[in-house]
Amino acid sequence: MTMEGGTYMATISQMTGAARSIYKSLYANNSRTDATAALFGDRQTRKQKGSSLYSTQYRGQDSSAQELSSIMEIANQARNLRKTYAETSSKFYAGYDSNMKDLRKAAGKVSGTDFQLDKSDIKTNADGSKTYSDRLKNAIGNVKDLVNEYNETTDFLRDNKSLGKGVQQLTTEFSDTTYKADSYAKMGITVDAKTGKMSVNENRLARALTDSPAQSEAILGKGGLAGRADRHAQYAQLSRSRVLPSMEQAIGSQLNYAANMLNGRSLPTMSRYSNMLNLFSIYV
User: From the CB of residue 282, how many other CB atoms can be counted at a distance below 10 Å?
Assistant: First the structure.
């Protein structure tokens, strides 16, 4: 460096050398257009790339604009990914919370059902039709509601299995009705072997409820289907925060790198480096 007026002034060659080091660290393994060759190529290359200082400057400006555009595009894509993730997770959790809440409510009704029924709760009419007592109607209604809520929750989880391992695990948990298929069959409830979804035969359920009250409560009440459904839903509520992977887990650490390209520091810094390189290219 040379002294001028009491201050140290860096020479053009020294500044160019420093800029070259910065350039290499920023653009390693990437190509830059004519401005790069004008700045770092040998004499013959620089001559081939253009003899006009002004044309070199313009080519450098074009290159900077292309790089900035690429950076903006990557960062905007990261923003769009975050937005899409937020919208998807919000929609999922709205359905998730609603299903688990409704399922626990239905399970609670069956658990609180009066199973002390008998054959007098079914009356056969002259035309052969049957009439159920209010107690029996209430018990049948509660069981059917629980089965419907359970099926809807299972469908919801299965439809969203692609969202991650957490949903897949819950789907498997809720499909365990197949293990109790024989017991549920005694209550007029059929279980699909593939999906675990249940269907109710109301007439058979009514007969089972009135013929075997104790068995009905054991299979359907707190120690049976209702208790199992409530435990599954409660577990799902407690593990809510772990059901979906975070944005970073789903896409990877590169997301933060891309998003940070548009923060308050990086763009001005990259812009200054690019401007310095274009300025130096005029003199080299």
Answer: 13
Cα–Cα distance, 90 to 97 (Å, whole number): 11
Question: Residue 128 above 70 pLDDT?
Answer: yes
Residue that the structure tokens 């390189």 belong to: 277
Mean predicted confidence (pLDDT) in 95-102: 97
DSSP 196: -
Residue with tokens 């998730």: 96
CA distances from 89 to 8, 156, 225, 235 (A): 58, 14, 30, 19
Q: Could you tell me what percentage of the chain is helix, strand and coil, using 3-state DSSP and rounding each to the nearest 5?
A: 75, 5, 20
Distance of CA 267 to the CA centre of its chain: 30
Phi/psi zone of residue 142: left (φ > 0), alpha (ψ -120 to 50 degrees), beta? alpha
Cβ atoms 152, 99 nearer than 8 A: yes
- C-alpha 70/C-alpha 13 separation (Å) is 30
